[in-house]
Amino acid sequence: MRVDTTQSQTGSYPEGEALDRFVSWRNNTSSFWQLMFLVATIVGIIALMALLYNIINSAFGLVAVQNQVDPNALVLAAEEKNMLSAPNLVTSEDDNELVRGIEGKPYAIGFFGYAYYQKHQDKLKILTVEGVEPTTENAESAKYPLARPLFIYSAEGILQKKPQVAAFINYYLTTVNQKIVDVGYFPASEETLDKARATWLKVNKLAADATLPTVEPAKIKGDILVAGSSTVFPLTERLAKDFQTEGFGGKVNLESIGTTAGFRRFCIEGKTDVVDASRAIQSAERTACRAKKLEPVEFRIGTDAIAVVVSKENKFLTNVTLDQLQKIFTTAQKWSDVDPTWPAEPIQRFTPGADSGTLDFFGENVFHTTLADLPNDQLIEILQTATDGKGKQIISKGKLRQLENEQLFYEDKFLALDPQRHTAECASDKPPARCTLPPRSQEEVYALVVELIVKPEVKGSWSLGDTLFNRSAIELEALQKYPDADLEFRSWLRQDFITKPQSSTPELAGVRNAILGSLWLIGITISVAFPIGVGAAIYLEEYANAIANPFLRRVNILIQTNINNLAGVPSIIYGMLGLAIFVRVLEPLTSGALLGVAADPTTANGRTILSAGLTMALLILPVLIINAQEAVRAVPLSLRQAGMALGATKWQTIWSHVLPNAIPGILTGTILAISRAIGETAPLVVVGAATFITFDPTGPFSKFTALPIQIYQWTARPQPEFRNIAAAASLVLLVLLLTLNATAILLRNRFSRRLS
Amino acid sequence: MTINNQPTTNGKYALELQDVNCYYGKFRAVKDVSLKIERQKITAFIGPSGCGKSTMLRALNRMNDLIPGAYVEGQVLYHGRNLYDPGVDPVEVRRRIGMVFQKPNPFPKSIYDNVAWGARINGFKGSMDDLVEQSLRQAALWDEVKDKLQQSGLSLSGGQQQRLCIARAIAVKPDIILMDEPCSALDPIATLKIEDLMRELVQNYTIIIVTHNMQQAARASDYTAYYLMDRIDRAGALVEYGPTQEIFTNPKNKQTEDYITGRFG
User: Fold this and answer.
1) Which of A515, A513, A500, A499 is nearest to A697 (CA)?
2) Mean pLDDT across the stretch A637-662?
3) Other residues' Cβ atoms within 10 Å of the Cβ of residue B153
4) Where are the alpha helices (DSSP H) in A539-583?
5) Which residues fall within 8 angstroms of residue A675, CB to CB, at 6 or more apart?
6) How confident is the model at residue A747 (pLDDT cuts 50, 70, 90)?
7) Which pTM was predicted?
8) Residue A506: which of A720, A734, A732, A733 has the closest Cα?
C-alpha cells in the first residue's frame, strides 16, 4: 500500500513548550483518575469498616446484670450446709469451748477469729494457709488468704461540718486497738493507725505530725449516723457504747446493712455520716461521692482474719491449702481422704456456729465453687428450697410438680409427683414423655436454677466503644441507676447464643432455630437452583447458539433477554410469586401432604421450608444462569474443537471439557447466589417464615425461621437488649456466609488446581 | 449409517472432491474445488491469507458444521461415500479424519488422559496403556514424557504440546490427519521435528496440511494445491494442483509462480 506523505501536512502534533504542557496535562489527568479510584476504594473500605464496627459495637460491651437471688449466696448457703452437716462437728459461739475441744486431740481441727487464737496461743498450733503465716504484716497486706481489711469511711465536708463525727472518729482511732481483740478481730499495726490519724489531722487542718486532740465526749453534741458492713458493726457498736458511757449525749444511729449498701447510702443518698466497710471503696463509688461533693476519707482500723488451728499434739499438719480446707470442713471423712499421706483417722471439726459472721467469712474465702459446679443434688435442693428476699419460697410445690411432670429429676425419687400415679401413667396407652426421657442432667438443672431462681436480668447495656473508652462514666451510671446490679463484660455472641433456641427473654435467646432454618433453606435452594441453572446455561451457550432456524433463534434471544431482566426483579416480587405458586397452588406438595408425610397442623398451609427454598431458588436462578453462561462462554473454543476433532459427540465434549473448565466460574456465580439467598428477607416474609419459633426445623415440610428474619424481628423489639442480640446474630450470619463462601472457594480452587 | 474403513474400488485416493463450495451464510468462501487426494501421501494446501485453504481443510472433516450458518455444496467422497450425505454422522467422520490445529491445544488434563480420552469416548477396548505408549511413540514424544505421564499436558513446551496433539489424533486410529498450519506457533527446531514426524506418519496415514511456509510445503509435501482468492467475488478457488516437485519447479500458472517465487503474497 502506498503511504501518502502529504497527508501529514494537514495537521500537526504539539512540539516544544506546547508538548510539555500537553504531556503534563495528560499525566495529571492520569494521576487524577488514579487518585479517584483510590478514593473510591478507601470510601468502600471505610463504609465496610463502619458497618462492621457498628455490629461489633452492639454485640459486645458492658451490661448491668441484676440477679433476683445472688448465685454466690446460694453456693455459700449450700456449702455451709455441707459444712454444718459434716460428721464429728462441734459448733459453738464460745471460743473457749472450741479451744477446749481441740486441745489435746491430734486429729481435731478448727477455726475462729484470729484474736481468740492470740488468747490461747499456748494451747494450740496455728497453721499457715497456702504457705502464708498469719502475721500482722501478712494479714494487713492481705497476703494471708483468710483476711480482710476493716475500714470506716467518712467525707471531708462531714468531718469539718459535724464536729461530733470528727470527735467520734478521733475517739475510734485513739481507742480501737484496746477493744478490737475483744470483738474478735486482728488489731491494725501502729503504722497503719498512725496513717489513719494523720489523715484525720489533715482533714481537720492540723499538722500531720501532731497528736490527736483529746476527746471529751461530754462536751460534744449532735447525732451520728453510721451504716455499713455487718463485720465492722460489732466493733463500731462497742465503741459507740463506750463513747456514750464516757458522756456523749447525742445518739449514735447504727445500722448493719452491708458494705455496698452502706456506700450507696453514703455516696448516692447522702444519708449517713460514717460508713463501716470490710473492703476499700471502689472507683465508681468514689466518683459517685465526688458527684455529691463528698470527698471520701478512709480510716483503716483493723483486719478480720481467721486462724486455722490444730492441737499441739497434731504432728502431720503445718500448712493447708484452701482446696484442702474446703475438703476438710465439708465432704472428707478421714484425713487421708484429703491427702493420702495423712493418717486414716476421722476428722474432728470445731467451727463457730451458723449465726456467726466468721463462718460466712470462712465460706466466702474458702469455697470457690460456682453455682455451675454444684452437684445435681445440691442444685435440686436449691430449686426446692431457695427463698426470695422476703423469705418466701420461690418455686411453689405446684410449679415443682409441673417441672417434674415434664421431666423427672431423679430416676427413683420424686420431688412432688405421686409415685403411684407416675407408674400408672407410664403403664397406660399414652405414656407421657417423662416415662422415656432420662432424668434431668446437672446442666439442665443448673439452667433451671438460673432461669427460675437466679433470674439474671440485664438492666442496662452499653456499647463496646463506651465500654472501652468511657468505663468510669458507665460505672457511675450503673451505680446510680442500677445499684443492685453487677457490671460485667458481656459478649452477646457466645456459645449459648448459637446453641440455644429462640426465646422471648433476650438473655436466654439463641439463634439455633434460625441457623438450622437458614441452612435447610440454602440447601434446598442450591440443590434446586444449581442443576437447573447450570443446565439452562449449557443449553443456552452450547446448543441454542448452534440453531440455524431464524424463528427459534429469535425465541432464544427472547429467553436470554428475559433471564437478564429477571436478575433485576425486586425480591419481594419473587416472594409474591412464591406465595401464589408454592404456598397456595402447590400446597399439597409443599406441605408434604401429597407425599404422605403427616402434616403438622401448624405447617399444613404450605408455609414450609420447601416453599421458601423453591422461592429462593427462583430468585437466584437468573444470577446463577448468567454467571454460569459467562463461565461456559469463557471455555476456549479450541478445547471444544479439539474434542470434536477426536470424534467426540457434543455431550462428550461438554461433559469432559466444557463443564470441568467452567466449574470454577460457575462456582463463583454460585457464591454470589448463595450470598444473595442467605441474606434475603423480603421473600421469606411474604412466603410466611415464622418470626417467632422456638423449635428446630425437622425437615423440608417444617415451619421455620431464618437468620435475617430473626435479626429483623429482634431489631423491631422495644427492649434495647434485643438490639445487642440482633447485632450478635448479624455476626453469626456474616460468619455463616463466609463459611459457605469459603467452602465454595475451596472447591473452586481444587477444581482450578486440577485443571492447570 | 457408519463409514467403514475398507478401501473401495478406487483405492488410490483417500478423498475425492467434486465441485465443492463452502458457504458462511450467504458468503461463498470457497468455490468449485475439485481434486483428488492420494492415499499415504502428504498434500499441502498453500496460498495467501483469506484464500479459503483453511475453510477447505475444515470442510474435509465437517468441522465447519460447528459454525452456525456454515454449509457445503458439492461432494467430498471418502471411500466412495459423500461425507455430506444426510445419513452421514459428522461425529463418525471426525473419528476417521482427525485434525491438528494451528495452536497446540492439549486438554488441561494429564498427558496420559490427553491421549486416552479420544480412545475412551470412542469405545476403545484393549490395553489403554499400550495404546497411549504406541501413540506417543508414533508421535516421537514417548522418550520425552514417559516418566511424567500424569503431569498436565500444558506443562510441555509448544513443540511437545503439538506432538501431543498429534499423538492424541492418531490414538483414535484415523485414516486421514488434517493439519491446519501446525507449525505456525513453533520455533524452527520444533518445526523440523514435526516435519520429520509427518514423513514418518505418512507411511500409515494420509496427511493434508495447510501451511503459510513455502519451504515447508516444498520440503515436506508430495502434492501441493495452490489456492487464491477470486478478486471479484472474494471466494477462494483452486488455482493449481499437482506434485510438489512440479508446482515448485515448473508451475503452469503465472499466479502460482508469482506466489512461490515471493513476488506476491
Assistant:
1) A513
2) 91
3) 23
4) 550-566, 571-578
5) A737, A741
6) confident
7) 0.71
8) A720
The full set of domain ranges for chain B reads: 13-260
CATH number among 1.10.3720.10, 1.10.630.10, 3.30.70.360, 3.40.50.2300, domain A515-706: 1.10.3720.10
Residues, chain B:
265
Under CATH, which architecture does the A136-305 domain have?
3-Layer(aba) Sandwich (3.40)
Choose among A486, A689, A688, A531: nearest CA to A621. A531
Q: What is the CA radius of gyration of chain B?
A: 18
Q: Which three cell numbers stand for residue B212?
A: 503459510
DSSP bridge pairs for A129: A132, A320
Angle at A605 between CA A602 and CA A606, to 5 degrees: 110
Q: Which three cell numbers stand for residue B27?
A: 458468503
Q: Do A639 and B117 touch (CB under 8 A)?
A: no
Q: Are the C-beta atoms of B97 and B61 separated by less than 8 Å?
A: yes
Give domain limits for chain A.
71-133+307-369, 136-305, 515-706
Taking phi over 0 as left and psi of -120 to 50 as alpha, with beta for the rest, A256 belongs to beta
Q: How far apart are CA B16 and CA B1, in angstroms?
A: 20
Can you read off the three cell numbers belonging to residue A675? Answer: 450470598
Residue B171 cell numbers, joined: 490414538
> Which DSSP symbol is given to A352?
-
**Cα distances (Å, whole numbers) of residue B83 to B7, B65, B86, B225:** 15, 12, 9, 21
Is the minimum CB–CB distance between A647 and chain B shorter than 8 Å? yes
Residues of chain A contacting B117 with CB distance shorter than 8 Å? 646, 656
Please give the pLDDT value at position A600: 57
Residue A338's nearest CA partner among A319, A355, A352, A354 is A319
Q: With CB atoms and an 8 Å threshold, state whether B122 touches A647.
A: yes
Would the CB atoms of A646 and B98 count as touching at under 8 Å? yes
Does the beta-carbon distance from B154 to A756 stay under 8 Å? yes
Counted across chains A and B, CB pairs separated by less than 8 A come out at 73
pLDDT tens-digit readout, A584-609:
888 888 877 777 665 555 555 778 88
Contact A168, A244 (CB under 8 A): no
Q: Counting Cβ atoms within 10 Å, is residue B252 exposed (0-12), middle (13-18) or buried (19+)?
A: exposed
Select from A542, A638, A646 the residue whose CB has the most chain B CBs within 10 Å, as the one to mutate to test that interface: A646
Which residue in A639, A647, A756 is closest to B91 by CB distance?
A647
Which of 3.60.15.10, 3.40.50.300, 3.40.50.2300, 1.10.10.10 is the CATH number of B13-260? 3.40.50.300
Q: Looking at residue A545, what DSSP letter applies?
A: G
pLDDT in tens, A57-67: 988 888 888 88
Beta-carbon separation of B107 and A642 below 8 A:
yes
Nearby residues of A140 by Cβ (< 8 Å), 6 or more positions away = A147, A149, A186, A188, A189, A192, A303
- Do residues A371 and A446 make contact, with C-beta atoms less than 8 angstroms apart? yes
Q: Give me the residue label for grid cell 477462494.
A: B236
pLDDT band at A282 (very low <50, low <70, confident <90, very high): confident
Per-residue pLDDT of chain B (265 residues; tens, 9 = 90+): 455 555 444 578 889 999 999 999 889 999 999 999 999 999 999 988 888 889 999 999 999 888 888 899 999 999 888 999 988 898 999 999 999 999 999 999 999 999 999 999 999 999 999 999 999 998 889 999 999 999 999 999 999 999 999 999 999 999 999 999 998 888 888 899 899 999 989 998 999 999 988 888 998 899 999 999 888 888 899 999 999 999 999 888 888 888 888 776 5
Residue of chain B nearest A652, judged by CA positions: B121
Report the gap between the CA of A636 and the closest CA in chain B (Å): 10
Q: Is the pLDDT of residue A21 over 80?
A: yes
Of A5 and A664, which is predicted with more confidence? A664
